[in-house]
Write a structure and sequence with these properties.
Length: 257
């Protein structure tokens, strides 16, 4: 079975990614480069992993040669057994485990990491699926802007300043083709940001897409179904673009014990 990718919740990350400064680092980079810090104690067995626990989990996994160069799309708490949660009392030591997705150049694995003993309890290779896209991969899809066929498609649409083009990955789907096996595929579409101030998705460049293998950061195919005009008008969300604002709603108060 081919590997497919779910990218349904990436829009916020995409916008943040396109606005990152050159000197910033990804979450994976931060976790890998930080020192060997002790994990901050959890106050309850179901407390989310702390920043120190996430760093510790990444360091433990990277200590295994199989995952020394891995990226980590997800590092989350492994829920403890229900009986342990119900029987826990404040002040009692908490056994903490992390569920880690480790993405390598050829595959990905789901690992269970014991933070107390600092060891990998289990590692299961994922087959027929892919974890979510990492920020470095989102930034890497700019490879389409150096592809001659894709650049030619942009030029046909009157776009020559590539610094004003924002590209985003979307699900490539699964069509049962053997050519998809072993590939981490996304369909890349781009947006014209020459008029954008608050909405990078406001002016899609229609009918021009690229199929990209994220493992090799390679453009496999360019689809150009013909030029259509880029949308007119102002699709920004700031007050200057909206002009007439709606009356504010009554304040909402939420109280919870």
């Amino acid at each position: 079975m081919t590997r497919t990718i779910s990218v349904a919740v990436l829009l916020t990350a995409l916008t943040a990614g396109c606005q990152r400064s050159p000197g910033s680092t990804t979450a994976t980079g931060s976790a890998a480069s930080s020192g060997d810090r002790a994990s901050s104690p959890a106050r309850h067995p179901l407390d989310p992993l702390t920043a120190d626990e996430i760093r510790a989990a990444v360091q433990i996994v990277k200590g295994d040669a199989r995952f020394s160069g891995a990226a980590f799309p997800s590092v989350v708490l492994q829920d403890p057994p229900k009986a342990d949660v119900l029987g826990w009392q404040p002040g009692r030591p908490v056994v903490r485990r992390a569920r880690v997705l480790a993405l390598t150049a050829t595959s990905f694995s789901e690992l269970l990491v014991d933070l107390s003993s600092r060891r990998i309890v289990s590692a299961i290779e994922g087959r027929g699926a892919e974890p979510s896209i990492t920020l470095s991969e989102i930034e890497g899809i700019k490879v389409v802007l150096s592809n001659p066929a894709f650049k030619a498609g942009l030029q046909k649409r009157g776009i020559t300043d590539l610094s004003k083009v924002f590209c985003a990955p979307f699900s490539a789907g699964y069509y049962g083709s053997p050519t998809q096996d072993g590939k981490r595929l996304v369909k890349v579409g781009c947006f014209d940001t020459r008029r954008s101030t608050t909405n990078v998705f406001g002016w899609p460049i229609e009918r021009l897409y690229a199929l990209v293998d994220l493992r090799r950061m390679e453009v496999l195919n360019v689809i150009d179904d013909g030029v259509v005009p880029i949308a007119e008008g102002d699709s920004n969300y700031d007050a200057a673009a909206v002009k007439t604002l709606r009356e504010p709603r009554k304040p909402t108060t939420l109280a919870q014990p």
